[in-house]
């Protein structure tokens, strides 16, 4: 660590080679397969490099790296969401699915849009825990570790987050039925 902090390129290369597979696995677990995985791993290590001097060693380096990976993944999720929201309807119409017909595809898109709208209305803390746990299937313990909060707080945010999400979805369904 000290060699990396002092700018030794050999130490930095060793750190990168040692922890790159770890970062890749974390990102893959959170985001699933993506063509941008190598770019995301690079973003993680750019953040590590920029903030290595702030690493105090109170936790293991792998825990600190995990937090950075989660932040990069969440940034990517937000970026992807913004990209999807800005897609024009013509490009959505060109999306083909081999397993479903046009009505099923449309229904699926509408459900995803409702879910995204409901999630966007939630407070960030609850939304983060719900997305990580229920959508990305990250364990409560991993979420607690990555966010630096107690596991009981994760469970509480998950409970209230699910309740809030259900309320937002019910409100959207009520509005769409009127």
| Sheet having the most strands | none
| Portion of residues within helices | over 70%
Shape field: elongated
Strand content: under 5%
CATH topology of the largest domain: Rna Polymerase Sigma Factor, Chain: A
Tell me the number of helical segments per DSSP (H or I, 4 or more residues long). Answer: 9
H/E series, N to C? Answer: HHHHHHHHH
Please give a structural write-up:
This protein folds into two domains: 1-86, Orthogonal Bundle (Rna Polymerase Sigma Factor, Chain: A), CATH 1.10.1740.10; 100-178, Winged helix-like DNA-binding domain superfamily/Winged helix DNA-binding domain (Arc Repressor Mutant, subunit A, Orthogonal Bundle), CATH 1.10.10.10. Helices cover 78% and strands 0% of the residues. Residues 87-98 have low confidence and may be disordered. The protein has helices at 2-5, 9-31, 37-51, 61-85, 89-94, 102-120, 124-135, 140-147, 151-177.
What attributes characterize this protein structure?
178 residues, 9 helices, 2 domains
Report a brief summary of the structure.
Helices cover 78% and strands 0% of the residues.
Protein topology:
Blueprint lengths: L1 H4 L3 H23 L5 H15 L9 H25 L3 H6 L7 H19 L3 H12 L4 H8 L3 H27 L1
């Amino acid at each position: 660590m000290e060699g990396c902090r002092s700018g030794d390129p050999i130490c930095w290369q060793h750190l990168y080679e040692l922890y790159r597979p770890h970062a890749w696995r974390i990102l893959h677990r959170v985001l699933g397969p993506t063509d941008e995985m190598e770019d995301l791993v690079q973003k993680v290590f750019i953040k590590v490099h920029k903030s290595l001097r702030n690493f105090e060693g109170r936790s293991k380096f792998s825990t600190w790296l995990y937090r950075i990976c989660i932040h990069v993944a969440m940034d990517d999720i937000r970026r992807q969401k913004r990209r999807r929201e800005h897609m024009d309807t013509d490009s959505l119409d060109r999306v083909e699915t081999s397993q479903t017909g046009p009505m099923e595809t449309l229904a699926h898109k509408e459900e995803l849009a409702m879910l995204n709208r409901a999630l966007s209305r939630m407070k960030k803390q609850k939304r983060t825990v719900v997305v990580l746990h229920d959508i990305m299937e990250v364990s409560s313990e991993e979420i607690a570790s990555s966010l630096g909060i107690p596991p009981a707080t994760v469970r509480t945010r998950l409970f209230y987050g699910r309740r809030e999400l259900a309320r937002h979805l019910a409100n959207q369904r009520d509005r769409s039925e009127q």
